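STRUCTURE:
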């Protein structure tokens, strides 16, 4: 594995974000994988699986609300935390970053809409 100076290492099964916690940053996966989990009636529901270069937790930057899901490492992972100030500074230096983030968010929304439509048809 390529070791990077920044970022936090997580072991398999370790919680990165806990649903209901307060957050004000986003996370970028430097290597490894995470799973996004929700819970209904005490049962975990896997929402998504993300890997290297994916980001999550962005709602903590754009909304003043608690975390909507739990994120857990799948195997060893190294994850970089980015606060709002650093994100905005980086976007000012490279505006294409904002476009790429919006593109990714749009893709996630489209997939969610498809899953929702399919679940309503069952």
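SEQUENCE:
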């Amino acid at each position: 594995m390529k070791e990077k100076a920044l970022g936090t290492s997580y072991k398999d099964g370790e919680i990165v974000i806990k649903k209901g916690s307060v957050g004000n940053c986003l996370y970028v996966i430097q290597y490894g994988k995470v799973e996004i989990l929700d819970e209904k009636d005490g049962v975990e529901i896997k929402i998504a699986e993300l890997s290297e270069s994916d980001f999550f937790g962005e709602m903590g930057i754009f909304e003043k609300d608690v975390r909507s899901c739990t994120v857990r490492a799948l195997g060893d992972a190294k994850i970089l935390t980015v606060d709002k100030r650093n994100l905005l500074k980086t976007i000012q230096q490279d505006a294409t970053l904002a476009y790429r983030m919006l593109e990714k968010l749009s893709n996630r929304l489209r997939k969610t809409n498809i899953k929702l439509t399919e679940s309503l048809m069952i």
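REMARK: Strands lie at 8-10, 15-17, 25-40, 43-51, 55-56, 70-83.
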